[in-house]
Please model this.
Amino acid sequence: MDAEFTELESTAMSAALDAAREGFRGANPLVGAAVLTADGQIVTGHHAGAGTAHAEVDVITTAHDLDIDLSTATLFVTLEPCSHRGRTGPCTEAIIAARIPSVVFASPDPNPRASGGGRILAEAGLQVRSGLHREDAQALNARWAQTMAELRPFVTAKIAQSLDGAVAAADGTSQWITSPESRAHAHEIRSRVDAILVGTGTALADDPRLNARDGDGSPLPNQPRPVVLGTSPLPAESFLALNPDTLRLPTHDIDAALERLYAEGVRHLLVEGGPRVLGAFFAAGAVDEVFCYQAPMLIGPGRSSVDGLGIDTLGEALRLIPDDTEVPAVSRLGPDFLLHFTTAPAPPDSRATALGRGQSTAQVRPWPIAPPAPVTRPAPQR
Model:
C-alpha cells in the first residue's frame, strides 16, 4: 500500500509522530494520530497508556470537540490501527463510525493480535495507504517491537546515584541519595508498571515494600506486583514475605526470569535491584529504558550503581540513547537531574537462547552471589 505523499501529508504524519512522543514507554507502543482537514488544519492526539483511549480515538474526540468535519478529512496514525478488543475497543470500529474516508498509517503493527486493521478498513470502503515516515515510526518503537518478538516484558531500569556513580557510601548508607522530588517521580513510574523487581540482597538489606505511594505516603491507585529475584530465603516477618502477591523467582538466569514473568502476565517490568541485578539485566541485553536520577553529590569510594557487566575495554561499553519521550532526555527534579534513555535493539541473531533475544557486547553471566546483609536498622519504605 506504499504510495506517494504530498508535503502537507508528510507534515501531518510528522505531527502524529510528535504527538506519539507525549506518551510513555512500556507494555504498549508509543502511538500518535493526526487529522488533516480539507482546508489544511491539523489536530493531534496520542495514546497515554494502558486503559486510556488509543491515539485514533483521542484525536477523533478532539476533532468532534472542535466541530471538525471528519467526512472530508484524512486520519494519519503512526501505527496500523488495531483490530482487536482489549481494555478498549478496536480502533478500526471507531474510525469507521466516525465516517473518516481516508487513513494513512506509517508502520504495520507487529502484534499479531492487533494487526490487520488496514485490511479491515480497506474492506469497509476506506482509502488506506501506508509507509509514510515508516522508518521514523519503527525507530520510535524498536525496543517495544523487540519485546513483542521475544515474548518478554518491556524492561525499565531505575538508577538513583551520586554524581560519581555510587548508590551507597563505603559504609553501606544510602538513605537518601536523591531528593523527595526524584522519589516522587520514581513512585509515579512504579504506578505504571505491572511488576517491580529487586534481588534478594536488596530485599534482605532494606526490607522494602515495593509499592507505589504519593507524597503523603498514601497508596496510588495502580500498584505493581512485587518480585524478588534470587535464591536466598526471605525472613518470614519481612514485608515481601508477608505480601501474598510477592512473586519469588529462585534463579539467577535473566532469560528464565523474564519467561516466567511473561507467563504471569507481566508486560512492563521495573527493575530497581542493586548493582549486581541491574548489571545482569544490562549484560543480558534485556533493558529497554533507563531512568537515572542523578544527585549533585560526591560520595567517593562506595558501591557503583551497576556491577558485573564484564566489560574490559571502552569498545565494549553499552551505549544508551537519549530519549525525549514523555520528558526531555535531561530534566530537573528538585536539586537532581533526571536522565532518560532508551537502548538500541540488539541484532536478532546475536544470541541463541530459548527466548531468541539479542545480546549486548558485554559478557553474559549471572551476578555473583554475595552473603546477604543483615537487617540492622528500621526498614525504610521504598
